[in-house]
Amino acid sequence: MEYALTADHHRVHAFDAEKGQEYYCPVCGNQVIPRQGEVNSWHFAHVTSCMDDWKYDMSEWHRGWQSRFPENVREIVVEHRGECHRADILMGGYVIEFQHSPISAGEFERRNKFYTRAGYKVIWVFDETYAFGNEYISSSLDDENKFVWKWPNRMLASVVPQRSTDIAVVLQLTEDHDDDGCEWLVKVEWAIVDDDGYADYRRFFIDDGFAPDLFTEDGLQNILLSKRKRFDAFLRDNQPYAPKCSQIKGNPRDWYICPKTHDWHNNQCRECQNNLINEFRTGTDYRQGGLFFYCAYPRIIHEADKYGEVHLPSIRF
């Protein structure tokens, strides 16, 4: 615990604690003392036991992530129906929990139920750099969105990512090299579901084009959205546009005609500055697959690089 309360209820960080002063736990109110040694990171420790029986991860990885956030959102006490616990990060209606050490399936489910019943959405960030570095987690050679996990954490089974709207699972797979972004994070979008309704993370999918943003409420909201809903929101935010598609029999003629050249587009939309995004649809029993474009002509959406090439974002469903 890095924060405690003074007798007049002011929050104090362990680095600012003074010897001889009295400090109290913000959850149970019992007295705590500052530990300011040379081996472990400075923190507060209880003189007696605490009513909060959750095990809190205080690894250096955990502290490093927490330190990126403003102090007023760190270690915030959440109370619901007489039960109190300390959230790693509480920002608006979202709780972020960072987890490096092992956690039991029971406690994982307890935390999720507590926060969601209190009205919050939960985003879990797990440190899986060791698993990825040792190829226990590996990406597929034929699909950069598909991953294989040899020995996934079984406690994750209670969260089915493609069905959950209140809980998200985010994995850190590589070491952090950028203090301002979250490019090294991936959100699990889909996992196998067994006959009992539990998720099996031995095969899971991500959205390679999506970089989770943990530092804004809009970013947290996007993490909780499904890949499809994020894409729909992207289209809403970038209106007006006209849908185009590859030459699939039965579609209206204007789906094939370019408004700029008045000719058949012949897939040239792939590299057009007026195209919002390329969408690759997989055919199913209910819909025709193919390549779709979203033409925003005459708006120029993407500027060409110094070589005159236009790089468009793409998404696959």
Task: Explain what this protein looks like in three dimensions.
- This is Competence protein.
- The protein is α+β, with helices and mostly antiparallel strands and 317 residues long.
- It folds into three domains: 51 residues, no CATH class; 181 residues, no CATH class; 79 residues, no CATH class.
- Helices cover 14% and strands 29% of the residues.
- The protein contains five helices and 19 strands.
- It has a six-stranded mixed β-sheet, with helices on both faces. A four-stranded antiparallel β-sheet has the order 10-11-15-14.
- The longest helix has 13 residues.
- The radius of gyration is 24 Å and the shape is elongated.
- The chain starts with a strand and ends with a strand.
- The mean pLDDT is 87.
- What's the tally of helices? 5
Total number of domains: 3
Q: What is the overall pLDDT average?
A: 87
Helix content: 10-25%
Radius of gyration: 24 Å
- Biggest sheet: strand arrangement: 6-7-8-9-12-13
Decide which structural class fits the backbone.
alpha+beta
Global geometry: elongated
Low-pLDDT runs of 5+ residues are none
**Counted beta strands:** 19
Largest sheet: 6 strands, mixed
Share of residues in strands? 25-35%
Give the termini distance in whole angstroms. Answer: 43 Å
What is the H-and-E element order? EEEEEHEEEHEHEEEEEEHHEEEE
